[in-house]
Amino acid sequence: MHEEDFTESTDRPSKTKQKEAMHELRDLGAELVELSVGQLKRIDLPENILQAVRECQKITAHGARRRQIQYLGKLMRGTDDAPIRAGLALLRGESAAETARLHRLERTRAQLLEDESSLSEIAARWPQADLQQLRQLRRNALKEQEGGKPPKNFRAIFQVLQELDREGTPPDAGE
């Protein structure tokens, strides 16, 4: 026997590392199964994985569900899991850029409620913004706050700002 027979080869990962990677993919698949249909649509999933996830969501028997999750992990071995992990991080709110963007939108909403002149800043940032709609939502949100009513229009302002930001984030906005 030669000494080189006992040295570790650096060509491929050890069997333990391979198993750990497979278990991570299986756990990632199990996490996907727990998401709602709307959340799954927000993640860019390959068709075969999406189909396997939807099938697993229908299964109620414990053993069958476990096998389907194992199968899902096997399917995920053949795909790039980085976009899936990034999508899950966005859903969980772990992305620092996404958190910063949401905080920026919340500040914009607060400025709008404090002073109507901030509409000019919104128009400069998003030229496609419907200022009349935002003005109306602002008026209604202030009335809601005064009357102690549920913040329906307050939330609607945020949704409009979020949609504007999705349509076209200005290049000078530092995220």
Q: Please, could you describe this protein's structure?
A:
With 175 residues, the chain is mostly helical. The chain folds into two domains: 14-92, PSPTO4464-like domains (Diphtheria Toxin Repressor, domain 2), CATH 1.10.60.30; 96-167, PSPTO4464-like domains (Diphtheria Toxin Repressor, domain 2, Orthogonal Bundle). The chain contains nine helices and no strands. Helix 3 (47-58) packs antiparallel against helix 4 (62-77), helix 6 packs across helix 9 and helix 8 runs antiparallel to helix 9 (152-167). The chain starts with 14 loop residues before the first helix and ends in an 8-residue tail after the last helix. The model is unreliable at 170-175 (pLDDT under 50).
Provide a count of the helices.
9
Query: Which stretches are low in confidence, meaning pLDDT under 50 for 5 or more residues running?
Result: 170-175
Main sheet attributes: strand count, strand direction, barrel closure: none
- How far apart, in Å, are the first and last alpha carbons? 60 Å
CATH topology of the largest domain: Diphtheria Toxin Repressor, domain 2
Estimate percent helicity.
over 70%
Shape: elongated
Query: How many extended strands?
Result: 0
What is the CATH homologous superfamily assignment of the largest domain?
PSPTO4464-like domains
Identify the CATH class of the largest domain.
Answer: Mainly Alpha
- The secondary-structure class comes to mainly alpha
The name of the CATH architecture of the largest domain is Orthogonal Bundle
Q: Order of SSEs, N→C?
A: HHHHHHHHH
User: How many domains, in number, for the residues?
Assistant: 2
Oligomer: single chain
Average pLDDT metric = 85
Strand content: under 5%
Radius of gyration: 24 Å
